Amino acid sequence: MLSTRRQATASCRGVLQRRGFFGVKSPVEASSGGVYVTKYQITKKGKAGVDYDDFLLTLPQRDQLASETKQVELFLKYLKVVTDHEARSDDFKDFLKRSKDGLMVESDVFITTEELLSAMWANGFAEKERTAVQYTFPAEYKFHYPELAVLFNISEEDCYKYCMRKRIEASHIGQLDSKKMKPGGWVRDHWLIFGASIFLLKTFPFFNYYFALKGFGTGMFLWTSYTAFSRYIGDVIQRNEFMAAQKTAQDVMEGEDKIMAAMKRFANDSKCLDRLASFSSDLRPTMASYRKALIEAEKQQLIAKAKKQLQSILSFEDSNGAKLQDSLVKEVKADFTRKFGTDASMQSAAFESALTGISGETSKQDPVLNFFADSLKQIDLSGKAKANASGSVSERLAFMQQQQEQEFVKTFYVTAEETTAVKSASDEAAKTKLMEQLYSKCGFHVPGAYTMTDAKPPSDSGSDYVKEVSDAVGKLTKELEQKRAASLQAAFA
203-233, pLDDT tens digit by residue? Predict the structure, then answer.
């Protein structure tokens, strides 16, 4: 009875150790290799080429442990502080070079943060050192033996033995290399069983063609084929299940990101409501300041344009005065040249005056000076001289002044032609253009019409509101232009 129970238990344990084709797997433990059900009815994440077993019962050798590459960025930061404090910069450089592309360690040769803190307390480390480890590393961090060796300046062999002792004491179920734990050549074993069976069963009544080759041989072939195909199909199914789970998780994450992006669009709705509630009270002082700023800006532009116009008039008058003075000198000179060339008595008197001056005496009667003095005294500066281009000096100067006044009026005054053009204009655009020209000519500033920029609605629902506001602003601008044109035409009526 006892032997029968042991055989049943052994057969059940053998079935549990094999990978079932229709095995039910927990989604929580799903991985690229599916799940691996140990003989202890404990589910682990399946990995290709990795078995799980109790270290206390197995007592694995170092070469039988599964390896992995560990990223140690956090540990390097802490190690840098420790080695600088203990003046062990060479140890840090060596470890950094070793772990540059990842630290190769045995997966389950480690101690946890709590175990490390307990060991530090038992070995008399200061509270400050234990607190630094506690607040630097999370509780689930695993300290593998190469990290412990460089951190506490101990040999890796001693650290390896200590970590393995801790794992064995805890009956840790860890990862083992399948190639080192299980012998290979299972197809060879199958056919060795077939050959041994044929040799043992060669006697009657089992030794016959139908049993040895047809029955037993076909059964062995089906067993081998089933084992091979079940392993291959199981790997494919587990891989596809893992990839599908990863794809589903990625889709879920993308969906959550889209939901968060959509929720962010409504994050400021409450602020908008608060601002709308206080919009009227905030707008009154703001609009008053805005209007004042507009008036000040228009005032400054008006003053600047008036100053510019007055400066232009002053420059024009200075230019006319300079031209008049130059013309006076030229006209008096021309009269003297004309008279001196035809008057013999003036020539002889001028000659005698020159001889007197050469002799060192002062001439009492200098005909040249007398001519210029008399000519300047005869010039009429009262403005009553008749303008004549071929008359006397005063008349010619009056003619030149008359031309300059006409040019001044044409430059700075509204002419009759422009008045007629304003009266005859019927198009609003033509009136606006004439108004701008006349105001610019007179030095008067035309207040600007502020228009809206092209506003793009944030959504389709806001396009109607933007269109309504744009139409209202356009209508108001058009009415303002019409009133300005009408007032201009009324001024010239």
Answer: 666 667 677 777 788 888 899 899 889 888 9
Would residue 158 count as lying in a domain? yes
**Whether residues 81 and 43 fall in one domain:** no
Q: Is 176 helix (H, G, I), strand (E, B) or coil?
A: strand
Residue 93 to residue 252: CA distance in whole angstroms: 43
Instruction: Evaluate if residue 33 carries a pLDDT over 70.
Output: no
Domain count, the chain: 3
Q: What CA–CA distance (Å, rounded) separates 51 from 6?
A: 24
CA distance 193 to 430: 113
Nearest of 81, 72, 136 to residue 110 by alpha carbon = 72
The helix/strand/coil state of 389 is: coil
Give the DSSP H/E element, type plus range, for residue 449.
none
How far apart, in Å, are the Cα atoms of 65 and each of 33, 55, 143, 163?
A: 18, 10, 16, 13
Q: Could you say which DSSP state residue 361 is in?
A: P
CA dist 473 and 471 (Å) reads: 5
Does 455 share its domain with 487? yes
- Amino acid identity of residue 483, one-letter, is K
55 burial level (CB within 10 Å; 0-12, 13-18, 19+): buried
Checking if the pLDDT of 17 tops 70, the result is no
For residue 38, what are the domain limits? 1-48
Q: Does residue 41 form part of some domain?
A: yes
> Is there a single domain that holds both residue 15 and residue 109?
no
Residues 6+ apart with CB under 8 A from 371: 336, 339, 340, 346
pTM for this model (two decimals)? 0.42
- 145 vs 151: CA distance, rounded Å: 10
Q: Are 171 and 52 in contact (CB under 8 A)?
A: no
Q: How confident is the model at residue 181 (pLDDT cuts 50, 70, 90)?
A: confident
Whether residues 140 and 37 share a domain: the answer is: no
